[in-house]
Amino acid sequence: IYKDYYKIFIGAIMKISKDAQVVVYRKKDEQIEFLLLKRFDKDKNETHYRLIKGGIEDNETPEQTSIRETHEEVGLSKLETKKKLKEYSYQAGDIQHDVEVFLLENTGDEEVKVDSENEGGFTIEDAEWMLPEKAIEHLNFNQEKEAIRESIKIL
User: Fold this and answer.
1) Which of 53, 78, 81, 102 could form a disulfide with 21 if both were Cys (CB 3.0 to 4.6 A apart)?
2) Closest CA to 52 of 139, 153, 137, 154
3) CA-CA distances (angstroms) from residue 7 to 10, 68, 143?
4) CA-to-CA distance for 19 and 65, rounded, in angstroms?
5) pLDDT digits (tens, 9 = 90+) for 2-52
6) Are strands 31-41 and 122-130 parallel, antiparallel or unpaired?
7) Interacting residues of 144 by C-beta distance below 8 A, sequence separation 6+
8) Could you give the 3-state DSSP secondary structure of residue 86?
């Protein structure tokens, strides 16, 4: 009950963004690899490894958003949704982000093609497949590290 009140109260003074985040994995040589984006943040003048994430549009479900964002940002279209992993919220500036995280398997052998169009102040420099330990090590944000850990438990 308090969480809903908080969102209503916050909604009056800040924007609430509904987002979908994606943990994309593939099986290669009997190992699991996760796809991370290498993104440059021009406001902070820093490069970070991140998971794919984007805003949910009015006409789509969070699961549909996860598939669309993956296709837009890295060009993959042969995807199978395995599970909704978790939900979390965070605040960035005057925007509260409510995030649903999905685990998607890359079932094809398509080449990753990064696309930074519609990325605002961020540029996707590259996308890299990484083994689980390396992916966790490279991610900056604890919620994203936890999403990888949850995925490992499932897989």
Assistant:
1) 53
2) 139
3) 5, 27, 20
4) 8
5) 455 455 555 556 788 999 999 999 999 999 999 999 988 777 788 999 999
6) antiparallel
7) 21, 50, 51
8) strand
Distance between first and last Cα of the chain: 34
Q: Which residue type is seen at 102?
A: F
Count helices and strands (H / E) in the chain: 4, 7
Is-above-0.90 flag for pTM? no
Are 82 and 89 in contact by the 8 Å Cβ rule? The answer is no
What would the two tokens of residue 70 be? 């993956």
Q: Give the DSSP H or E segment for 132.
A: helix 132-138
Rg (CA), the chain: 16
What is the spatial distance between Cα 75 and Cα 68, in angstroms, rounded to a whole number? 9
Q: Is 131 helix (H, G, I), strand (E, B) or coil?
A: coil
The full length of the chain comes to 155
Distance CA 67, CA 60 (A): 11
pLDDT digit string, tens, across residues 126-149: 999 999 999 999 999 999 999 999
In the block, tokens 């509260």 appear at: 96
